[in-house]
Amino acid sequence: MSAVRQHPPEDKRSPHLSEYSPTEPLPEPGAVELHPRLDIPLLHDLIRPDHLLWTPRELRDLTGLVASELTGRLLDIVRVDDENRWWAKLGLTAGVELWLLSWAPGQGTEPHEHGGASGSFSVLFGALREDYRYPAGPVRTTHHDVGSRIGFGSGRAHQVRNVSSVNSASVHAYSPPLLPVRYYSDLADVPPIPPQRAQAAQPKELG
What we know:
Layout: E1 4-5, E2 17-18, E3 33-34, H1 41-47, H2 56-69, H3 71-77, E4 86-92, E5 97-103, E6 108-109, E7 112-113, E8 118-125, E9 127-133, E10 140-145, E11 149-152, E12 157-161, E13 168-175, E14 182-183
Parallel strand pairs: 2-6
Antiparallel strand pairs: 1-4, 3-4, 4-5, 5-13, 7-12, 7-14, 8-11, 8-13, 9-10, 9-12
């Protein structure tokens, strides 16, 4: 699995904003896809291919352990691009997806929620600002420094940005995996009732 950019060269949107929609099938239960530089027993154990639905706490522990136990390998993989957002898939099972993202100063996401998935991220280096909102709640802001980790449930919409003057990187996980992300023009537009969970991409049937 090679790293991929979030924007093709012909994309005319701001390079400081990212969007993502899944296009690939899920592995079968018990199977796992790993980044070639992380195809090691430790990550096989951490990502638990037979575990099909992760709680926010389990996702928080996963991203925290990956960031702390595999720091050196992640630093060898990560790239920072001042012109375009960058990310690499670290792992995928039928129950969870795991990503490494970098953030140059000024880069960030549109306001979004994860299609009914629970999620987590842990800061590998640098710092990130997160503006977030739960349905019918106020918009809140928190800052995540290096080493911090957070797990959140399916109702959380947020916008994540690097507002500092130095590069940042973070490890992210979502369960169920590969649910289409929903985008909003503003966090104030998040509906008061959480949208129903979107349907994940399914394994292709051959024959």
